[in-house]
Specification:
The structure holds 2 protein chains of 2 kinds. Helix content of chain A is 36%, strand content 26%. Chain A contains 12 helices and 14 strands. The longest helix of chain A has 26 residues. Chain A starts with 6 loop residues before the first strand and ends with a helix. Chain B starts with a strand and ends in a 9-residue tail after the last helix. Classes of the chains: A alpha+beta, B alpha+beta.
Chain lengths: 290, 172
């Protein structure tokens, strides 16, 4: 369908964008890449009175590395991050996940901040942010606050951003030496949202897993950290038996949603397989990168 | 309504689209460039793909006002003299379309992709075209056409290098 009418604002600074959000609050939606919001408008699933288009806010785009963190401006387009050497070196898990987002033409417009603020539980970037404990920088009338990923995602398409706040930047901790990563997903068709996706990051020190991070996409109303599996993995040497045990622990408490793409039981079985594959791939990747 | 100016297929165009008008509808309704097709209108089918500032984008997921100042290429811009570019000819030779509705989107997506991946193999081409839906061909002939175009582009480039001329054999 054609888009419903809305008032259109196109600020060119963060200060102006925040001012407009303060004025319009929850009557407004922020338009970044538009690859999720425009379909929601077309399907009448969102009916904001005002669209605040931040595509002209240049200060919101860019990738930089400093002090052990890689900071990505909220309006940075997915293809830009995909082609960024800073991202490839500093946040290899993000680099592994980016090519799996939608299709090439989607990544031409889609943005890092847009995907993370939209917070689709089946999307790739929320799982990456949750696995790595990314930090979300938001600005509102009262100033700036930094929200850890564990508190950012609150439910289906819901974050802890207040209606008068703008997501300006997402920071990812830079990968330590010995890190290996993988992003695995199972979808009905290439480019679809995953039935189950898994972001995996392992750090191998002297052949032992010193840090394990796993976060699922598509198994709940928000990305889910597999903490029980992480505990099983820490301090151990990678092996098929260990990964089997991690897969069991990662999925024993899952209760994935059922839909026309698969039952809850099926998703759980797929999740266990994805954990085994993801861990194998991440361990291989850690050895390759050494 | 906002006045916008942009470059489309090498020409400067202006318009006053309503904010809610997509780039796809602006191209078709305001500029009468009806080669860009509108299928699903929510970013799933790829029929409306055009090239904006060198990147393939879905023109149904972009507002016309957002294209202000941009360089846009549509299917009409690939062979302005009425002939066929290398990709179009290769797709013609490979029977890459049946009803033709999805064709402009495939051609634009493939144009952008071959521009940045001249040595693409079949698997990469399938991946690049995976966001475009065709309900007739079964895709094989489309992939064949794009592969043939890549091959002809490379041969053309070799011939060009050997001749040391500026013979234009790989437009499109």
């Amino acid at each position: 369908m054609k888009l419903p009418p809305f008032e259109y604002e196109a600020p060119t600074t963060v200060a102006d964008a925040v001012g407009l959000l303060a004025e319009h609050g929850d009557e407004a939606s922020v338009l970044a890449g538009g690859q999720s919001l425009i379909p929601l408008l077309a399907l009448r699933l969102a009916r904001p009175e005002v669209l605040i288009d931040i595509n002209g806010v240049d200060e919101l785009s860019g990738v930089s590395a400093a002090d052990g963190w890689v900071a990505i401006g909220a309006m940075t387009r997915e293809y830009v991050a995909e082609e960024s050497g800073t991202v490839a070196d500093g946040v290899p898990l993000l680099a592994a996940a980016l090519p799996m987002i939608g299709h090439e033409a989607i990544r031409s417009r889609g943005t890092i901040g847009g995907s993370l603020a939209h917070a689709d539980p089946a999307a790739e970037l929320p799982a990456v942010a949750r696995a790595l404990d990314a930090e979300f920088v938001v600005r509102g009338p009262a100033g700036t606050r930094v929200i850890p990923a564990a508190q950012w995602f609150e439910g289906y398409l819901t974050t802890s951003r207040r209606p008068d706040e703008l997501l300006t930047q997402v920071r990812f901790p830079a990968a330590r030496p010995g890190t290996g990563v993988s992003f695995h997903e199972v979808a009905r068709r290439h480019g679809d949202f995953a039935m189950v996706g898994l972001a995996t990051s392992l750090v191998l020190s002297g052949g032992v897993i010193s840090d394990a991070r796993l976060a699922f996409a598509g198994v709940s109303d928000m990305p889910v950290r597999a903490a029980a599996a992480e505990d099983v993995l820490a301090g151990q040497r990678p092996s098929a038996e260990l990964f089997d045990e991690a897969a069991r622990r990662a999925t024993e408490d899952l209760d994935p949603p059922a839909d026309l793409h698969g039952s809850s039981d099926y998703r759980k079985t797929v999740a266990a397989a994805v954990v085994r594959r993801g861990l194998r791939a991440a361990a291989d990747n850690a050895r390759e990168r050494q | 309504m906002a006045d916008i100016t942009l470059r489309i297929n090498g020409a400067t165009r202006t318009g006053s689209p309503e904010a809610r008008k997509t780039l796809a509808d602006f191209l078709r309704d305001d500029l009468e460039l009806t080669g860009t097709h509108v299928g699903c209108e929510h970013g799933v089918c790829g029929a409306c793909t055009v090239i904006v500032d060198g990147r393939a984008v879905r023109s149904c997921l972009m507002l016309a006002v957002q294209a202000a100042g941009s360089e846009v290429t549509t299917i009409e811009g690939l062979a302005p003299d009425g002939g066929l570019g290398t990709l179009q000819q290769a797709m013609w030779d490979s029977h890459s379309f049946q009803c033709g509705f999805c064709t402009p989107g495939f051609v634009m997506q493939a144009t952008a992709f071959l521009g940045s991946h001249p040595d693409a193999d079949e698997q990469q081409i399938r991946e690049a075209l995976s966001g475009n839906i065709c309900r007739c061909t079964g895709y094989q002939s489309i992939v064949d056409g794009v592969l043939l175009a890549a091959q002809r582009n490379r041969q053309g480039a070799t011939v060009k290098a050997e001749r040391g001329s500026d013979h234009d054999s790989n437009r499109g």
